[in-house]
Amino acid sequence: MSPLAELLVITVVCVASGCLGSLLGLGGGTFIVPILTLAFGLDVRLAIGASVISVVAGSAAASPRYLDEGFANLRVAVTLEVATVSGAVGGALIAGLVSAHVLYTVFGAVLAFSAVQMLRSRREVAGVAVPEDRIANLLTLHGSVTESGGGPDRPGEPGGPGGATRRPYRVTRTATGLTMMTAAGAVSGLLGIGSGAMKVPAMDLAMRLPIKVSTATSNLMIGVTGAASAVVYLQRGDVVPALAGAVALGTVAGARLGSRLLAVVPTSTLRTIFLVVLLVISVQMLLRGLA
């Protein structure tokens, strides 16, 4: 396959990964790095360099719609972004000193841990009231989200069968969320992904945001986090312009499609897809890293 044909194939594949990344709040980098390394045989650092550029592009493409439709919580995003940016810069600086096998292994372990914790903790908090949080009250982080028919996204929230309903939600454990976001930012800088694999569980489990709010807010945040670490990758020469351009083009198209799908995809379906995707990719990357 010629280099031009390979770039065209990569662009098409990135449309799908950008769509899924936007829908799940993971950022396309979660899928792009495994695709470029496992399917196209590219060096992991070049894949990460292209991925981190696509993360910024995909976030910019999907975020306006999420904000317009009220899915993304801008106050939560701004509050948590302070922690993630700090972690992202540190992670990007460390990445140049770590071997490729370690990057693969860390990537897979992070995704597996996020999926298992999200599944187990969801069962544990069922029926438990959302604790009061002074920081969330002070910063007025609480909000509401439009949900289609069916039960509420979380036990104890108002709602019922029928058409779309605006459901209120309360934010809790903001301090825990800030700590987890620092770690998520470090993973983002280290692995060149949006670190939504950690951000979404942090907001969903620790801060108790509805899953659609978590994914949309994560998508908004990963663009800022990615931009903070992209500078380091550019200076280090890990970004190939042609490759990064092809990946970003496909990711933007996919992200716009994913932002439209979020409003119509049922919450239970979204959560199931999220968990399955994390587990599948984590196994692939762990096998590669431990080989």
From TrEMBL:
Main localisation, per the record? membrane
User: Where does the record place Gly residues bias?
Assistant: 148-163
Decide whether keyword Membrane is in the record: yes
* Signal peptide residues on this chain, from the entry's feature table: none
Alphabetical UniProt keywords: Cell membrane, Membrane, Transmembrane, Transmembrane helix, Transport
| Residue ranges of the region described as Disordered | 143-168
UniProt topology in membrane: Multi-pass membrane protein
Q: Which regions span the lipid bilayer? A: 7-40, 46-67, 74-95, 101-119, 175-196, 216-234, 239-257, 269-287
Matching Pfam families: TauE
| Localization annotation | Cell membrane
GO cellular component terms attached to this protein's record = plasma membrane
The UniProt entry's sequence similarity note says:
Belongs to the 4-toluene sulfonate uptake permease (TSUP) (TC 2.A.102) family.
* PANTHER family with a match to the protein in the record: MEMBRANE TRANSPORTER PROTEIN YDHB-RELATED, TRANSMEMBRANE PROTEIN YFCA
Indicate what this protein is called per its UniProt record: Probable membrane transporter protein
The species this protein was found in: Frankia canadensis
The taxonomy runs: Bacteria, Bacillati, Actinomycetota, Actinomycetes, Frankiales
